[in-house]
Amino acid sequence: DGEKPLAGKTAIVTSGPTHEPIDPVRYIANRSSGRQGHAIAAALAALGARVTLVSGPVTIPDPQGVTTIHVERADEMLDAVISRLPADIAVMVAAVADWRVAASSDQKIKKKTGEAPSPLQLAENPDILKTVGHHAKRPKLVIGFAAETQTVEANARTKLQTKGADLIVANDVSPATGIMGGARNRVKIIGPENVEEWPDLSKDEVAGRIATLIAERLLSQG
Ligand code: C5P
């Protein structure tokens, strides 16, 4: 089907941040609007894919034509993603918190006047992209993102290997770029042998191009 090249294909996309609770009213998180991940879910659906979007807490609406699962924490995001395998395509866009609070409190931690605050003990979160990239039911195409503030390309290359991804979409999220939370993005597509540099585009345009690239790859693989 020329019009809908991803008809019959399934895709899982993660988007947004994760919130890792400290106590019932406080959390630690990464900055992420979910705009790029949500746009990719919508773009894959527009090409005919059956898309599950696993979204952390965001303020933007669920995309149309996509099944959205809402989660808070990284461990919930991992469970939601794994429960949707097998799939043809995985695009892990979420800004997952690398650490969670080792023993989050069931009750609000009270401030005690005159006492030093107790330090937070952190534990490492599961790496969702890495888990999917090395899974027995690994999707045919696994794509990760790399938001960096320095040595963007070298870091992305390392990530390709360690995470078992086919492509890494790298962007420089230094505050001066305005990319974080903004409507535009400037990315490099990094594969094992090649780097493609895309111009400054809207996040919707980036999403459309990524969906097209995914369709081309899957079709050429047969
Ligand atoms: O290692 P880093 O966080 O920079 O890698 C970014 C890529 O890995 C993104 O695709 C992100 O969605 C994914 N990731 C993940 N689970 C984590 C950390 C990152 O899926 N715990």
TrEMBL record:
**Positions of CTP binding:** D98, K108, P126, D127, I128, L129, F145, K159, K163
Q: What terms describe the molecular function in GO for this protein?
A: FMN binding; metal ion binding; phosphopantothenate--cysteine ligase activity; phosphopantothenoylcysteine decarboxylase activity
Q: Which reaction does it catalyse?
A: (R)-4'-phosphopantothenate + L-cysteine + CTP = N-[(R)-4-phosphopantothenoyl]-L-cysteine + CMP + diphosphate + H(+); N-[(R)-4-phosphopantothenoyl]-L-cysteine + H(+) = (R)-4'-phosphopantetheine + CO2
Describe how the cofactor binds.
Binds 1 FMN per subunit.
Q: Which cofactor does it need?
A: FMN; Mg(2+)
EC number in record: 4.1.1.36, 6.3.2.5
Q: Name one GO cellular component term.
A: phosphopantothenoylcysteine decarboxylase complex
The metabolic or biological pathway listed in the UniProt record of this protein is:
Cofactor biosynthesis; coenzyme A biosynthesis; CoA from (R)-pantothenate: step 2/5; Cofactor biosynthesis; coenzyme A biosynthesis; CoA from (R)-pantothenate: step 3/5
**In which domain of life is the source organism classified?**
Bacteria
| Residue segments, region Phosphopantothenate--cysteine ligase | 11-222
Record-annotated DNA/pantothenate metabolism flavoprotein C-terminal domain positions = 6-216
Query: Which family does the similarity line name?
Result: In the N-terminal section; belongs to the HFCD (homo-oligomeric flavin containing Cys decarboxylase) superfamily. In the C-terminal section; belongs to the PPC synthetase family.
UniProt protein name: Coenzyme A biosynthesis bifunctional protein CoaBC
Record organism: Ferirhizobium litorale
What broad taxonomic lineage does this protein's source fall under? Answer: Bacteria, Pseudomonadati, Pseudomonadota, Alphaproteobacteria, Hyphomicrobiales
Gene that specifies this protein: coaBC
From-to range in the entire protein, with total length: 183 to 404 of 404
